[in-house]
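Take one record.
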Amino acid sequence: RLLARSQLGENSPRHEAALFHLASTHAALNRDDAALAALAEAETLATRLHGAGSLQLVPMCHAQAEVYEAAGQFDQAVGALARARALRLEALGPEDIKFAGSCFNQAGLLVRQAGTEAGAVRRGALLTLAAELGVEASVAAAAAGNAEQARGFVEKLLEQCLEVDCDMDGEGGEGAGGGEGAGGGEGGEGDVAIELLRARLEDPYSY
C-alpha cells in the first residue's frame, strides 16, 4: 500500500486496490476494526476517483457487509448491502440481473439475522422484509429475461425462511407471558414471509 501510494500517488487506482487488499488481509486475520478502517479509506478514495454513485463502490459495500456480519453487527451489514443495492438500482435500473442479485443478497442476510434474534416478532418482521426483497429480486430477474433465476431466487429464499421458521416453532413458549405469541402463535410473522414467497412461486404469470 505504501509503495503504491509513494510511486503512483495518493489518488491512484493502484492505491485504491492496495487498500482493498489490505482490508481483505485484516478481515482474514479477524482484525475487524482495521479491516473496516481500510475499507473506509478505500471508499473515500474510490468516491474521489469514480464518483459517489459509481458501481466501483459495490465491492466495498459487499466487503463491509462481510466484516460486519462476521462481527455479529447485522444492522450495519444490512445497511452496507442496502447501499450496494441502491447503487445498482441507480446505475442499472430495476430490470437488471445484477440489481436482482443485490436484492437477493440483502434478503439472505436478513434471513440470517432473523436466525440470531431472540424475539419471535422481531424475527418474523425480518423474514417479511427478506421475503419482500426476494420477490423484488424475482421480478427484476424476470424483467431481465432470466426466468430460471427469477424462480431460483424465490425457491432458495423460501427454503431459508422455512428453516428459520421451523426453529421459531421448535423453541416453544417464547411468547408465553410476554404476549409475543398471543393469538396467532409464534410463527405468525414468519408465516407472512412464507406466504409471500409461495404466492410468487405459484403465480403462473411471474416468469
About this structure: The radius of gyration is 20 Å.
